[in-house]
């Protein structure tokens, strides 16, 4: 990894002098590489389910045995669903990145929001009697875009359910400390090795790609969480220990905190 990339240009300054102009193009090259990788990743991610669908469609005829259809249909539905989620997440991410959709901040009752997210998570197909406990240590509200906040926290809670074995304990907590308001999602799963943590919020980054695909993940969830938090001047802090579990904390500044309002 080069520290700095320079573009050098030699121009005639006068009859006997020449001028060497150096331009720092490190950032431009990095952006070009990211764009290239992104297009390659999207193509790859969409091609995989499409290949499965095509394989089935090409081998089937109207005379195929009903048993073959019975086996193939759930797989085909699953792959179509995967493409659907991928495109939905890509669009959400692109809207967040371009700032196309303005942030609609309004007073948000965090306790109420978290309890509805937990209730939804308990209806997930991956949910296998996980023990989700909700602690609301603070009565403060947040000035936030409620829909975006819901999507960010849901991603964290769904991940805790998806990537941990049945009956794992998961804690969701809302608290206020000196640093500000903290929404925390902690699981007692297998944990994530330290060297993965730094790259976890990159698009399409997965710790175990086979397992993530099995769970129907798009690899975009944490990238969405990071963007949503950035738009709220909030920060995502991830701690994990192998064999102990993982904790995701969304830290909001004191400026976003507000007292409960009566409606
Ligand atoms: P995906 O759609 O694959 O779930 P995410 O961006 O949400 O993508 O997560 C990226 C990767 O981080 C996942 O593929 C998984 O390997 C890992 N991960 C996320 N949350 C957890 C968790 N609570 N425990 C263990 N691994 C996790």
Descriptive overview:
The protein is 44% helix and 23% strand. It has seven helices and ten strands. It has 263 residues and is an alpha+beta fold. The longest helix is centred in the first third of the chain and has 34 residues. The mean pLDDT is 92. Strands 4-6-7-9-8 form a five-stranded mixed beta sheet. A three-stranded antiparallel beta sheet has the order 3-5-10. Strands 1-2 form a two-stranded antiparallel sheet. Helix 2 packs parallel to helix 7 and helix 4 packs antiparallel against helix 7. Adenosine-5'-diphosphate (ADP) binds next to helix 4 and helix 7.
* Low-pLDDT sequence parts: none
* H/E series: EEHHEHEEHEEHHHEEE
Ligand names: adenosine-5'-diphosphate
Main structural class: alpha+beta
Question: Helix and strand layout, with pairings?
Answer:
Elements: E1 6-12, E2 18-24, H1 26-59, H2 66-98, E3 106-108, H3 110-121, E4 131-136, E5 141-144, H4 146-162, E6 169-177, E7 180-187, H5 194-197, H6 209-214, H7 221-231, E8 235-241, E9 245-252, E10 257-258
Parallel strand pairs: 4-6
Antiparallel strand pairs: 1-2, 3-5, 5-10, 6-7, 7-9, 8-9
The structure holds adenosine-5'-diphosphate.
Adenosine-5'-diphosphate binds next to helix 4 and helix 7.
EC number: 2.7.13.3
Domain Histidine kinase: 41-256
Enzyme class: transferase
What's this entry about, in short?
It contains seven helices and ten strands.
Write out key terms for the chains shown.
single chain; 263 residues; alpha+beta; five-stranded mixed β-sheet; globular; binds adenosine-5'-diphosphate; two-component regulatory system; phosphoprotein; transmembrane helix
């Amino acid at each position: 990894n080069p520290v700095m990339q320079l573009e050098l240009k030699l121009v005639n300054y006068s009859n006997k002098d020449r001028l060497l102009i150096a331009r720092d193009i490190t950032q431009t090259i990095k952006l070009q590489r990211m764009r290239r990788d992104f297009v390659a990743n999207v193509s790859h991610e969409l091609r995989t389910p499409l290949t499965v669908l095509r394989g089935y469609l090409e081998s089937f005829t109207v005379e195929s045995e009903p048993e073959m259809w019975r086996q193939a249909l759930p797989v085909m539905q699953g792959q179509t669903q995967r493409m659907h989620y991928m495109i939905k997440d890509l669009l959400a991410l692109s809207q967040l990145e371009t700032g196309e959709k303005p942030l609609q901040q309004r007073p948000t009752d965090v306790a109420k929001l978290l309890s509805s997210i937990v209730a939804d998570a308990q209806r997930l197909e991956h949910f296998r009697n996980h023990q989700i406990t909700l602690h609301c240590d603070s009565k403060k509200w947040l000035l936030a875009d409620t829909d975006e906040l819901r999507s960010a926290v849901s991603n964290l809670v769904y991940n805790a359910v998806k990537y941990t074995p049945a009956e794992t304990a998961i804690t969701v907590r809302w608290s206020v400390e000196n640093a500000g308001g903290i929404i925390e999602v902690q699981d007692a799963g297998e944990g994530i090795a330290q060297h993965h943590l730094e790259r976890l919020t990159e698009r399409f980054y997965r710790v175990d790609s086979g397992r993530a695909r099995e769970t129907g993940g798009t690899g975009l969830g944490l990238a969405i969480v990071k963007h949503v938090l950035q738009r709220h001047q909030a920060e995502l802090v991830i701690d994990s220990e192998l064999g102990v579990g993982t904790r995701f904390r969304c830290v909001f500044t004191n400026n976003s905190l507000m007292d409960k309002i009566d409606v």
